[in-house]
UniProtKB/TrEMBL annotation, chain A:
PANTHER family named among the record's database cross-references: CULLIN
The protein, known as: Cullin-4A
Similarity field: Belongs to the cullin family.
Residue ranges constituting the Cullin family profile domain according to the UniProt record: 468-697
GO molecular function: ubiquitin protein ligase binding
Keywords: Biological rhythms, DNA damage, DNA repair, Host-virus interaction, Isopeptide bond, Phosphoprotein, Ubl conjugation, Ubl conjugation pathway
Claim: DNA damage is one of the keywords in the record: yes
TrEMBL record, chain B:
Name of the molecule in the record: RING-box protein 2
Underlying gene: LOC117567543
Highest taxon of source: Eukaryota
Keywords assigned: Acetylation, Cytoplasm, Metal-binding, Nucleus, Transferase, Ubl conjugation pathway, Zinc, Zinc-finger
The enzyme's E.C. designation: 2.3.2.27, 2.3.2.32
Species of the source: Drosophila albomicans
One cellular component (GO) term of this entry: Cul5-RING ubiquitin ligase complex
Length: 824, 111
């Protein structure tokens, strides 16, 4: 009985209740050798407050008796006995030593139940009440905490826990009521801030008091409260009472909430406030679970009102970028507010409300007032901010996108529509596209919606002016691909071409582009002015990719012709060397072009001297032998020549057009010629001849002189060989005068495009009618618009339909004027 | 007149006594267009210009740069001309020229 010996005799607090014994057993189940220590450990595990832990450790000795009764009263109980191994061993020994002479150890209950002193409960009540009141008034307590704790344990052990709980509740309620009354009485007149501080202090001390009280009543909290699910723990009971009275008392609650709102508003206006106080009070509201009902709603209302007024004022005062800065600042502030003292559940409604008041309500105004300027001035940072803010509100990005689209259309139109700006149009378009691309990429997060919108807007405005943009783009490409475009590397050129292709994609009338491109390409190839064959080929493959092989097959044919011509010329040179001596003086190179691939050049007849005619005939013969069934049509407008000229100052080489050469060669026979003589000798077309003479007599290099002097060639003018001509260069290129011609050419090219289009329209109409047999006018027009790849006017379509009716491809229905029948 | 001048130049290219001509032609880069030497430039069978590939070839050889090389012109003894492709299909049905109903025989082919 070594363990039992240690136990003191039972004291008054001994338990009889079987339930309590079971409780003790549970606690001691884990203990084997030292129940006292394990009890302490168990107690320790259960205590959450330091005070309780202290009480347990000091009462170690006194707790022990609880276990003594285990051995004493329930020794016959195997379950009970087995809890202490010593006892078990002891009992085994007894059985073993005396097998025959059986001596039973009978353990009997005490005769008299231990009782409490009569006035114990009353005394303890008073003791505890005094202590609680002392705590509530923040006065020193008469009794030691240990004593109080033990008293609570004892009360609970003797089934007085319910009364004790009721008593405690009553005391707490009284205290709360008293305090509330106090606040109510003084609160009305008190400054809000002071009131808030008071309330805060009261709350904090209330919490502290409740912790203290709970520590004392911990035993009750752990036993009585846990067993009755219907009642609150001491802490919750305290909060509950606080809430009931705080919430009931409108004056105090309202003043508190108002105070909070005032503080927050002050902070929003820029003054510093005690965030700790705010945080503590908001926490209080949260703990009392009246945060959302009493505070949040009002807070959000106040927020809305404040920002509604503010946004209206600021929209008036500030420029859009500044306003955006302001909004972003506000959002940061509100987020900080959330972080520092507001409950996180407010985050969504608060931010939503701020965004709504500051942004959503003014969406249209912001965009209308500010977007264009931002885009115009390329203010990337502000645009990024704008996008960032607008993407937070509903419809923000789509509104932004719409306005962005509108701006591009408006701005793009000004670039495209003005004939005065034709010269820089393509470059402007490229720059504009670049700029918008950068904005979409950097500021609008590469949002697909914006990319598409950008594309759509470009396509829209570029086709606002028919044909001209296509023509100018073709011209721009020509300029880039022509030699003499120094300072750009192949890579740069490639990049430029890629950008051009982007613009090209927007163009509806791609045939216009093709016509002009082809004309320029022809010029580049024939004059040998192409900067790089690789770039030409690359451009061609781009076009092919974009529009398909049908679009480029003729252009490719042009390149092929140039290659074939090279071979033919080599063969021809070999041929002349072996056969004919006449041509060896003259270095003749012929570019053989396939009719149909190349632009059509107006046929002109000129009188050529035998110098030209002879080799030409030899070549003709040579070529037609090689390629039977063909005929050759020489193009005097396109060729160029090199002439050796003898001036007083020495000999020069002149690079001239065929026409210029024809004129100059006339001077070999007669040093002075009149305009009429030249006209008769060359039979060059009048306007062309005037331009040619102008280039020779009035240009930069004047190899002939004109009398009378003057810029324009008049009938009857005389021309002389200009013997005194000097120039520091040996090879001189005499430029043709082209000014007028380009205009005509341009007209001609456009004319041809329109002609081609008419055929395409005719073909489409017949195709559709052949399939449908009968069709109403409107349906036919709709189908045509779907099929045709270039822009057309309904009026033009009507004309084509009329023409087809005239030519008996189709007829109007006899009964219905609006219906057409296909005529097979 | 020009003819005479030309001859005199050619006959005395290295005659030093005569002063050199003011202008001498050194080089000529000429340009000429070729087309099939046909009376009617539309193939009566496919109604496409003979300079272009026939319809069939246009549809099939879209990506062939040298489509034309396969689609040459053919002349019959009657001097009518068609795409060779078109005609070779035609004669399978009817060995007569579609225009004049003469017996079809090839006079020459374009190359």
């Amino acid at each position: 009985m070594s363990a039992a010996k240690k136990y003191k005799p039972m004291d008054t607090s001994e338990l009889h209740d079987t339930e309590n014994i079971a409780n003790c057993l549970k606690k001691s189940d884990s203990a084997t050798t030292n129940p006292g220590r394990s009890a302490f450990a168990a107690q320790n595990m259960n205590s959450s407050s330091a005070a309780a832990a202290a009480a347990a450790s000091t009462t170690n000795g006194e707790r022990l008796p609880n276990f003594s009764k285990l051995g004493a009263h329930h020794g016959n109980d195997i379950r009970a006995a087995s809890t202490t191994s010593n006892l078990l061993n002891r009992m085994g020994a007894i059985h073993n030593t005396k097998p025959g002479d059986v001596k039973k150890i009978v353990i009997k209950n005490f005769k008299a139940k231990p009782t409490l002193p009569d006035n114990y409960s009353e005394d303890t009540y008073i003791k505890l009440e005094e202590a609680v009141i002392a705590i509530q008034l923040s006065k020193p307590i008469k009794y030691s905490l240990e004593e109080l704790y033990q008293a609570v344990v004892n009360m609970c052990s003797h089934k007085m826990d319910a009364q004790l709980y009721a008593k405690l509740k009553e005391l707490t309620e009284l205290h709360v009521k008293r305090n509330i009354k106090l606040k109510e009485l003084t609160g009305g007149s008190m400054d809000k801030l002071i009131l808030l501080e008071k309330i805060n202090n009261w709350w904090l001390s209330f919490c502290q008091q409740m912790i203290m009280i709970r520590s004392i009543f911990l035993y009750m909290d752990r036993t009585y409260v846990l067993q009755n699910s219907s009642i609150h723990s001491i802490w919750d009971m305290g909060l509950d009472l606080f809430r009931i009275h705080f919430a009931q008392n409108n004056v105090v609650q309202k003043r508190t909430v108002d105070g909070l709102l005032t503080l927050i508003e002050k902070e929003r206006q820029g003054s510093t406030v005690d965030r700790g106080l705010l945080k503590s009070l908001v926490r209080m509201l949260c703990d009392l679970q009246i945060y959302s009902s009493a505070f949040e709603e009002k807070f959000l209302d106040a927020t809305n009102q404040l920002y509604k007024a503010e946004s209206q004022r600021k929209m008036q005062e500030l420029e859009v970028p500044e306003y955006l800065q302001h909004v972003s600042k506000r959002l940061v502030e509100e987020n900080e507010r959330l972080l520092h003292y507001l409950d996180s559940s407010t985050k969504h409604p608060l931010i939503y409300n701020v965004e709504k008041e500051l942004l959503a309500e003014h969406l249209t105004t912001i965009l209308q007032k500010g977007l264009d300027a931002l885009l115009e001035d390329n203010r990337l940072n502000d645009l990024t901010l704008l996008y960032g803010l607008l993407s937070r509100v509903k419809n923000g990005t789509s509104e932004l996108c719409g306005n962005f689209n509108g701006y591009i259309k408006k701005k793009g139109r000004t670039i495209v529509i003005d004939p005065e700006k034709d010269k820089s149009m393509v470059q402007d378009l490229l720059d504009f596209k670049d700029k918008m691309d950068v904005i979409v990429r950097n500021c609008f997060e590469h949002n697909e919606k914006f990319t598409n919108s950008l594309r759509e807007a470009f396509e829209f405005f570029i086709n606002q002016r028919a044909n001209k943009p296509a023509e100018l783009i073709a011209k721009y490409v020509d300029m880039k691909l022509r030699s003499g475009n120094k300072g750009t590397t192949d890579e740069e050129l490639e990049k430029t071409l890629d950008k051009i292709m982007v613009l090209f994609r927007f163009i509806h009338g791609k045939d216009v582009f093709e016509a002009f491109y082809k004309k320029d390409l022809a010029k580049r190839l024939l004059v040998g002015k192409s900067a790089s064959v690789d770039s030409e080929k690359s451009m061609l493959s781009k076009l092919k990719q974009e529009c398909g092989g049908g679009f480029t097959s003729k252009l490719e044919g042009m390149f092929k012709d140039m290659e074939l011509s090279r071979d033919i010329n080599l063969a021809f040179r070999g041929h002349t060397l072996s056969n004919d001596r006449d041509v060896t003086n003259l270095d003749l190179t012929v570019s053989i072009l396939t009719m149909g691939y190349w632009p059509t050049y107006p046929p002109t007849e000129v009188t050529m001297p035998p110098q030209f005619i002879n080799p030409q005939q030899i070549f003709n013969k040579f070529y037609l032998e090689k390629h039977s069934g063909r005929k050759l049509q020489w193009q005097p407008t396109l060729g160029n020549c090199v002439l050796r000229a003898q001036f007083d100052a020495g000999s020069k080489e002149l690079m001239v057009s065929l026409f210029q050469a024809l004129v100059l060669l006339l001077f070999n026979d007669k040093p002075t010629l009149s305009y009429e003589e030249i006209l008769a000798a060359t039979s060059i077309e009048d306007g062309e001849l005037r331009r040619t003479l102008q280039s020779l007599a009035c240009g930069r290099a004047r190899v002939i002189s004109k009398t009378p002097k003057g810029r324009d060639i008049e009938d009857g003018d005389q021309f002389d060989f200009h013997n005194e001509f000097t120039n520091k260069l040996f090879r001189i290129k005499i430029n043709q005068i082209q000014m007028k011609e380009t205009n005509e050419e341009q007209k001609a090219t456009e004319e041809r495009v329109f002609q081609d289009r008419q055929y395409q329209i005719d073909a489409a109409i017949v195709r559709i009618m052949k399939m449908r047999k009968t069709l109403s006018h409107n349906l036919l027009i709709t189908e045509l618009f779907n099929q045709l790849t270039f822009p057309v006017k309904p009026a033009d379509l009507k004309k084509r339909i009329e023409s087809l009716i005239d030519r008996d491809y189709m007829e109007r229905d006899k009964d219905n004027q609006n219906q057409y029948n296909y005529v097979a | 007149m020009a003819d005479d001048g030309e001859n005199s130049l050619d006959s005395r290219p290295n005659d030093d006594s005569k002063p050199e001509k003011m202008f001498t032609l050194k080089k000529w880069n000429a340009v000429a267009m070729w087309s099939w030497d046909v009376e009617c430039d539309i193939c009566a069978i496919c109604r496409v210009q003979v300079m272009d590939s026939c319809l069939r070839c246009q549809a099939e050889n879209k990506r062939d740069v040298l489509g034309r090389q396969d689609c040459v012109v053919v002349w019959g003894e009657c001097n009518h001309s068609f795409h060779h492709c078109c005609m070779s299909l035609w004669v399978k049905q009817n060995n007569r020229c579609p225009l004049c109903q003469q017996e079809w025989s090839i006079q020459r082919m374009g190359k």
